[in-house]
Amino acid sequence: MEKKSKYNLAVVGVGVVGIEMIRCLKRRNFPIDTLKIFARSSRDIEVDGQEYQVKTISEDGFKGIDIALFAGTEGEKGAAATFAKAAVKHGVIVIDNGADFRMDSNVPLVVPEVNAKDIKKHKGIIANPNCSTIQMVVALWPIYKKAGIKRVIVTTLQASSGAGKSAVEQLNREISEISSANYKSLQTNVEKSMPQQLAYNVFPQIGGFAEADFTSEEWKMVKETHKIMGDKKIKVSATTVRVPVRTGHSESVYIETKKPIAPEAVKTLLSKSAGIIVIDEPKKGLYPMPKDVEGKYEVFVGRIRKDPFVKNGIWLWVVADNLLKGAALNAVQIAEYLIAK
To answer: How many CB atoms lie within 10 A of CB 106?
Structure first.
């Protein structure tokens, strides 16, 4: 894109991810000339004490915009499905956090720490991967380059905010009701945006059930990992679980490498890798936890250990803020790459 001192940006959507996009742009001092914010209806919002005018989204609204960040909505068709191509016709580069274009062969799916080079292949649209995929591939990529990876088995523990503001509100309502009456489960019909009670509970379903009884979220982790890392031979299998955490996804990741690599070598390798912080002193109670990574930009890795029964088997514990590195920050990083190159 044309090199400028400042750029005209748009943020589409003012849910939890859209708000974090606005914050990231400001905190990272993105060189903005004008910032437009679009949603389904016009209104005024306040983010960290600053007021913003939200305008009703329309095709003409993208005239003069250089980069548009679409916040996306988990599990639903986002605004990008309707407006992204129209925006591109106005000369806009679209960075979409939704699922509409992720598996489109003409659209690069990008995690800057892994495959930033793919950004240059864009034809107007760049896709942001799923939150759980992003943090996993950030941790896997340095190991993949050093020792190769044959297999990945991952169980995710995903926070309520991954399903949006209404899911967080559901969790809060459920906790309040159950705690106040000392119930084990809900006694009334609390309004739900998730398929099961979440307070004091976990359930192994994120998205609808699809092929081979895996959920859509689980298949995202398979297909997106293959596309981002450029290797369809990696055997990826996932179980995705919703947990009563506000923000911060955790993942138990088991890998089998092609070449032997010791846990200490993995720790050193990840510690030197961009976007990763290793916290791994389990005997001192030091390992990543979602309550500690909320609001942080990096992917945190701990509990790095060898499988004593399988050659080349390694365990990792991976935690990240799903609204930041899992969504808003990753999109802003892509925009930063665009203007830098």
So the answer is: 10
Tokens of 103: 């598996």
Whether residue 212 is predicted with pLDDT greater than 50 in this model: the reply is yes
235-251 pLDDT tens trace: 999 999 999 999 999 99
pLDDT at 75 over 50: no
Q: How many CA atoms lie within 13 A of 56 on its CB side?
A: 2
Rounded to an integer, what distance in angstroms lies between the CA atom of residue 14 and that of residue 112?
24
What is the CB neighbour count within 10 angstroms for residue 216? 18
Find the length of the chain.
341
Shared-domain flag, residues 170 and 259: no
CA distance 45 to 218: 34
Catalytic residues: 131, 249
- Confidence label for 133 from pLDDT (cuts 50, 70 and 90): very high
Q: What is the DSSP letter of 121?
A: G
Residue 207: partners with Cβ closer than 8 Å, 6 or more residues away: 75, 215, 216, 217, 218, 220, 240
Please report which confidence band the pLDDT of residue 76 belongs to, taking 50, 70 and 90 as the band edges: low
Number of domains composing the chain: 3
The one-character DSSP state at 128 is P
**Is residue 154 located within the same domain as residue 252?**
yes
- Asked if 80 and 72 touch (Cβ cutoff 8 Å), the reply is yes
Task: Kindly give, in sequence order, each residue whose CB lies less than 8 Å from that of residue 181, ignoring residues fewer than 6 positions away.
Answer: 187
Domain encompassing residue 99: 7-129+327-340
